[in-house]
Amino acid sequence: MKTLLVTGGAGFIGSNFVRMALSEHAGRRVVVLDGLTYAGNLENLEGLQELYPERYRFVRADVTDAQALASLFAEEAVEEVVHFAAESHVDRSILGPMAFVKTNVMGTATLLEAARQAWGDGRGRYLQVSTDEVYGALGDAGAFTEETPLDPSSPYSASKAGADHLVLAYHRTYGMHTLITRCCNNYGPYQFPEKLIPFMIARMVSGDTLPVYGRGENVRDWIHVDDHNRGVFLALEKSGPGQVYNLGARCELRNIDLVRALIREVAAQTGRDPVELERRLAFVQDRPGHDWRYAIDPSKAVRELGFRPRVAFEEGLGSTVAWYLAHEGWWRRIVSGEYLEYVRKQYGA
Ligand code: NAD
Ligand code: TDX
Fold first, then answer.
1. Annotated catalytic, 226?
2. What's the chain's Rg over C-alpha atoms?
3. What percent of the chain has pLDDT over 90?
4. CA 193 to CA 172: how far, in whole Å?
């Protein structure tokens, strides 16, 4: 049985990945390492220890803690690493960039070095989960390919770009089997309610305003988290070393159109009045350096990995809204404390 180390497994994408790994990849033992920051939540992994007592282990540690990583690599015969752990929210990176540099740059460097020390002779595969945001902003036409130069705009994307360079340097310099996937905006269950989709659903249910940055005309490219994670697995299993794969489902939407689609879906599923929800739209101060448009060209992953997104957007959005409505306790336990303080800082009173 192979041992797969998943960092950031208590977060949104990581926890969905861990469930997929345990349920669909029986030949793997999954060791989750997570520091449990504000975004990490053990509820996201509830039940897994009981369901998979032999194949699942959770370790609380920070990815910048070299000693903790060395001990873990000494205890477990790790053959694969998928590195999700990161500070992930752009607006928080604008309010306070240092945590992003520490976790995203230093954390990646510390993890790469721990893997190199443990794998000296070239065993092991390291996959870096990256983002389309490292390419910067597009105008109204075109799409990012793997050849698009990195041109990040925010402290978040700059820190992710720095990490990507380290990952490729470890392949070129030490011959390690490292690779990168760069995905567009994810949606689905267990997403922290600071991100656009769960943020808006929670505020629709709670009776709050719906703050849209600028005129709501910025474009994001959306993919269901399970499709992203299937792409990560394909790359982990099939990619050669030193490769980069863009992952996306060719689903571009203006923010305002997405929020209106959410209004229709929440109204349909709860019986709320869509006109009253629409009246709560508030066009607020734009995000500084707000990237205009993202669009991923996934043709390399389609061609070389057989990557095929399965979840149609309308279906995925409907099931996502249904999930947040059915798991109100999950997000209500989050939207207090530190979260309220953040919302006050970001959106004012
Ligand atoms: P998230 O914020 O929901 O989860 C991040 C997880 O990492 C949390 O469990 C947190 O506790 C953990 N973590 C943070 N700092 C840590 C540290 N120093 N040590 C150990 N653990 C730490 O993030 P997400 O949205 O699930 O994103 C996961 C990864 O995917 C990130 O690398 C992100 O850049 C990338 N990504 C996200 C998206 C998206 O749309 N959300 C798109 C493309 C790529
Ligand atoms: O209140 C809001 N109002 C609003 O108009 C929020 C929270 C967002 N927005 C806009 C900003 C973006 O154009 O919606 C869009 C999506 O915003 P976020 O959910 O913050 O995502 P984004 O900034 O696009 O970054 C996300 O996708 C790429 C993830 O957070 C990153 O981790 C990932 O790398």
1. no
2. 20
3. 96
4. 38
Contact between residue 272 and residue 266 where contact means Cβ atoms under 8 Å apart: yes
Q: Does 2-187+223-250+289-311 carry CATH code 3.40.50.720?
A: yes
Sequence-distant (6+) residues with CB within 8 A of 339 are 38, 193, 194
Q: How many CB atoms lie within 10 A of CB 162?
A: 19
Say whether 52 is catalytic: no
Distance 22 CA to ligand 2 centre (A): 29
Give dist(CA 55, CA 1) in Å, integer. 9
* pLDDT tens digit sequence for 281-314: 999 999 999 999 999 999 999 999 999 999 999 9
pLDDT tens digit string along 108-119? Answer: 999 999 999 999
Out of 80, 133, 227, 297, pick the active-site residue: 133
Better-predicted residue by pLDDT, 348 or 32: 32
**Atom 26 of ligand 2, nearest CA residue:** 185
Distance CA 3, CA 286 (A): 44
Residue closest to 131 by CA, chosen among 291, 242, 18: 291
Q: How many CA atoms lie within 13 A of 341 on its CB side?
A: 4
Residue in 34, 87, 132, 297 annotated catalytic: 132
Whether the pLDDT of residue 185 is over 90: the answer is yes
- Residue 156 reports pLDDT greater than 90: yes
Token pair 């497994």: residue: 9
DSSP state of 86: S
Q: Is the dihedral of CA 206, 11, 240, 180 positive or negative?
A: positive
Q: Are 178 and 112 in contact (CB under 8 A)?
A: yes
Q: How far is Cα 189 from Cα 325, in angstroms, rounded to an integer?
A: 11
